[in-house]
User: Fold this.
Amino acid sequence: MKKIFADIIIIGAGPAGMAAALKAGKMGIKNILIIDRMPEPGGILQQCIHNGFGLHKFKKDLTGPEFANHYISKLGRPNIKVMLHTMATELTRDGKVIISNDTDGLVEVTPKAIILAMGCRERTRQQVSIPGTRPSGIFTAGVAQRFMNIEGYMPGKEVVVVGSGDIGMIMARRMTMEGAKVHAVTEILPYPGGLSRNVVQCLNDFDIPLYLQHGVVEIRGRDRVSGVKIAKLDQAGNPTNQTFDIDCDTLLFSVGLIPENELSRMIPLELSPITGGPFIDDNYQTSREGVFTCGNAAFVNDLADYACMEGEIAGEAAANYVNDALSSEFNMRVVAGCNLRFAVPNFLTGKAPVTLYMRVTQPMVDVKITSTDNIVNIKQQIVKPSEMIEVTLDKAQLAKIKELKEFRIGVTPR
Assistant:
C-alpha cells in the first residue's frame, strides 16, 4: 500500500472543506490534502443552480456554482493538493486515513490533523416507513435535482413532494418551471420544514399547494407510480379518516438530512443523538484530539454561508493544532435549555468571539433568549425550528461564563 504524509487532510471538497483548506493555508500550513469522491470540487453546490447563496459571506446573491467558484478558483495553490474521484474508506484508531481511487489504489495517509467535511445525506422513503408498492418514480429531492441540473433528465411530469424541506420546495419550483405539474407538497408538522423565503418564492409564487399536518399514507402503482393517498393527521400525528387521492407519476422525498458520519464511527467519535454529528467545542474539535469537523457533517446548516464560516474556524484551529498553538482557558459544557432542540458548539474553551447555533422545538413569537446568570438576554420577535438562531458571545461574556459550572441557554416567552 502506498503511504503519504500530510499536515492536514480534509475529507470533502464542498464549501466547508474548501473554506477550511484555504484558511489553513493562510495560517502557513504547507501540506494540505483535500479528497473528494466526486469528479469536481464544490460538493452539492454544483447542482444547486438556483440563487440565494453568498448573501451572508460575500454580500452578493449568487447561484450555487458561482458561490463554489469563489473557493475553487483559489484551490490551485502549491500548499493545497486536491484528489478527486477519491474515497476515504477508513479512519484508523491510530490517526491514519485510508483512501482509494482508480489511479493509486489504496493509499495510507498519515496526517497531523484531520478535518471531517463530508456533508450530509438525505432520508429516504424507507426511513419514514410509508406503505404501498415499490414502483419506479420515487426519488429523494436531491437525486431529482442532480438528474435535472447535472444529467439533464426530467424525472417526471405529475409530481407530489413529501416533506417541506428546502430542497423539496426548491425542486417543486424547478419542476414547475420545466413544465411539470406539482400537485402538492405535504408536511406532517403544522408548520413548514424549510426557510420562510422558500415557502414564499418556491410555493406561493408558483401557486403550489402546501398541505400542513398531512401525510402520504399509501403509494400506488406497479411498474411506475400511479398515485398516492394523502391523509390529514391529528395532533398526535396519526392519520384521520379525512383522505384524498392524487394521481401522479413521480414522488419526491424531502424529509430531512442526516450528517454523514460513518467514518466518524470508526475512530470512534462521540456523536450527538440530537444533531447526528460529533460533539464539538468552539474550535470545532471533536472528542478526539486533532480531529475537527465543520459544515453539515457537524450539524445540518440552513445556508452554505454558515458552513463556510464553520470551515474557516475548523481550518484555523487545525492549523494551530499542527503548530502546537491550540489552547483553551476552560472547558464549559453548553446545555440546550427550555424550548431548544440543540445548541452547538457543545463546549466552550474561552475563544472569543464564539457563535452559538440553536434550533427551537416549535414556532414561537415575542420571545427572549436567556442564559445562566442572564449573560445572554436577547429579545426576538419570531423563532422557527426551520431557521437557525445565532447568538455571538464576546470576550466579556466568556469571562463571566468561566466562573460557571455549566452554561445553559434557552428560549422563553417575554
Observations:
- The two ends are 62 Å apart (CA to CA).
- The chain has eight helices and 25 strands.
- The chain has three domains: 1-121+257-327, 124-255, 328-414.
